[in-house]
Amino acid sequence: MAPIQEGQYMIQTNSQSSARLNLQHYWVEETLGYLLHPLIAVPEDARIADIATGTGIWPISLSRRVPSTVQIDGFDITDDQFPPSDWLPPNVSLRILDILKRVPEELKGQYDVVCIRYFGVLIRNNDPEFVLRNLVDMLKPGGYIQWVESDVYNQSVVKSVYSTLLSPTALERYLEVWRRYLDSSGLLYEWLKTLPALCKAIGMSDAQLFTPESVPALRLTATAAVLGAWEELSYKILDGSPDEILGSGTQLREKLAAFWREVAAGAALDLQFYVTVARK
Ligand SMILES: C[S@@+](CC[C@H](N)C(=O)[O-])C[C@H]1O[C@@H](n2cnc3c(N)ncnc32)[C@H](O)[C@@H]1O
């Protein structure tokens, strides 16, 4: 049996997780330089959806950059991380939706833009088609999807020129273990490169892949996000059921303490972003 079950979200949805998601938001926005790719036109009366919105940080942030007449709806399987609705901008709503099930009829054909970000931990066996078709169903004809991910499978360790750490570092060795763990759950991430081809295959046009350079000054931010997610995984999954590959929650947390010492000594994680934009 795979360590992570199909449809199971391996990370927590508590306040620590919210802080990490908002940190990730800063990291991705600074790296990409946009919330919505410049190719995506936003009419004054646009309706925009954000799937698996987490804390709602993307809709909230976007609402401050588009006319107040643009309606932005965030959706997530849980409202654990939503701010109270009376604190949201008037043109932002946050609602419950399971995107691994068929979208309800009332959401079909409603949106000019549908975005999804950091959903890779729920895509199995390089097959995002079910989710993609759901996103496309929500679009009006001519609407755009934007799908943003960082490649947590192929992340690598980089060292500052001032670092005296010897290779392989504990973090480098652990990335091999991490990849075996993702393999064992079918969390493969090759689909990030083939998503535009899939968009074309299901009849979308103008499908493009963008791979922005990572920003060296943001490597510590990226590292904090990844190590934070691993810590949440240690509590959420491994404490209850230790895993053959990753071990127990306590073991992973001990390793994390060693990784943080390496980070203080000049090591960091480097991840590639993938942005797919396509039109219905
Ligand atoms: C890594 S977070 C991404 C949050 C947000 N997109 C961002 O970029 O800040 C993944 C989110 O997916 C949500 N999620 C997990 N399974 C889901 C499902 N089946 N349908 C919708 N959302 C889901 C989780 O609750 C979590 O908020």
TrEMBL record:
Assigned keywords, A-Z: Methyltransferase, Transferase
- Is Zinc-finger found in the keyword set? no
Q: Which GO terms describe its molecular function?
A: methyltransferase activity
The record's section on Pfam families has:
Methyltransf_23
Query: InterPro entries recorded for this chain?
Result: SAM-dependent_MTases_sf
User: Could you state one GO biological process linked to this protein?
Assistant: methylation
* SUPFAM superfamilies per the UniProt record, alphabetical: S-adenosyl-L-methionine-dependent methyltransferases
Q: This protein is called what?
A: S-adenosyl-L-methionine-dependent methyltransferase
Q: Which taxonomic lineage does the organism of this UniProt entry have?
A: Eukaryota, Fungi, Dikarya, Ascomycota, Pezizomycotina
